Amino acid sequence: MKKIFPSAEAALQGLLHDGMVIAAGGFGLCGIPELLIEGIRKAGTKDLTIASNNAGVDGFGLGVLLATRQVKKMISSYVGENAEFMRQYLSGELELEFNPQGTLAERLRAGGAGIAGFYTKTGVGTVIAEGKEVKLFDGQEYILERGIVADLSIVKAWKADPSGNLVFRKTARNFNPPAATAGRVCIAEVEEIVPLGSLDPDAIHLPGIYVHRLIQGSHEKRIEQRTVRKRESV
Amino acid sequence: MWDRNQMAARAALELQDGWYVNLGIGIPTLVSNYIPKGIEVTLQSENGMLGMGPFPYEGEEDADLINAGKQTITELPQTAYFDSAQSFAMIRGGKIAMAILGAMEVAENGDLANWMIPGKLVKGMGGAMDLVAGVGRVVVVMDHTSKTGESKVLKSCTLPLTGRGVVNRIITNLGVLDVVQGGLKIVECADGVTEADLRAATEATIVG
Q1: Which one of A101, A109, A191, A228 makes the best mutation probe of the B interface by having the most chain B beta carbons within 10 Å?
Q2: Among candidates B39, B41, B33, which has minimal Cα distance to B9?
Q3: Using one digit for the tens of pLDDT, what is the confidence trace for B123-156?
Q4: In a domain, A138, yes or no
Q5: Considering the domain boundaries, does residue A230 fall inside one?
Q6: Domain-embedded: residue A108
Q7: How many domains is chain A partitioned into structurally?
Q8: Which of A47, B62, B65, B79 could form an S-S bond across to A170 if both were Cys, CB 3.0 to 4.6 Å?
Q9: Is B105 a catalytic residue?
Q10: Residue A191 lies in a domain
């Protein structure tokens, strides 16, 4: 069992095909698998359906795959930061399925956990409920949402050991664990692969069973909204 | 009339000691500047954090530490991080006592519209639909009327809904109203605003 690959291109080898479904981790530009996104761009795989909370920005994150027109459909909760996305969507070139953020996270978690669907109150009485089964539980309406199983998951973590155990850092964890579990195959890119035994087994965020391939690389980690406060003068 | 900061300060009076609270983007974010003395609240950021701290000092920004508005922030001694599935589990599960959110329209039955204007730019609902469906109490903070002077406190919403019958209290630049049986009840008027002014600016039914 060897999970470590030398590059994104090598790790993606044999896993890509046109029309596939990809689950991607990240929130905004925080904790996104930027190396694997670049690898998919180079591979030129087309007609992708991508389940990801956001769609990157122009020229970075998933915006890279929108610019090259490799994406057929996005399943997202918020896409407001990407002008090229809006252009393609409004001209009908790109399909968009809006999911409430918690529904998207739970759809990915459920897909990875063998749960075909679940009932939620989120979206009851809104356009999100249209065409979905409504069921009463204890007098309250819930709608049926389906789990998502993806052909491939691409995620970003902080550290991994060679067995694929992952540790995330701060809010860069976000959608990465649920997205990782939703894929039939998962590739994780990390900042550092540490020797076996150096991660505390009690502090593993995602066990290696979910991670099939690993790459290590340096990340740009772009900040979307740099906000600071002034130091108070002494 | 209250300005943005006065509205945020008024909304901060809704907080109770020990609560876990989610603040939306815009005026609701300012609420954290006015948390009353003696009240401890823990702020949740739905991208996966409890115990959100203030913006970092210049040079101390961390790309791995942002809030739901994608702004750089800091952690506190009590901070905990978790993934998005767990974040929304605690939201839908009713563990968050209150959400303070912005709005485009609110109706007298508690309907809320704050995510989409058809035909204009469509950005998405983010976590707003989950929040209003799951948290214990929803307080809306917004201007009472549009830039053209039309009431945003309506008999029924014209925009696509974020949630149906979900709003408990509305805080605007003109005052505070509660959603009650049959319509809205005036709780208080803003400085220099009369009850007649508030009624005149409100399309929704006011009861009592």
Answers
A1: A101
A2: B33
A3: 899 999 999 999 999 999 999 999 999 999 999 9
A4: no
A5: no
A6: yes
A7: 1
A8: B65
A9: no
A10: yes
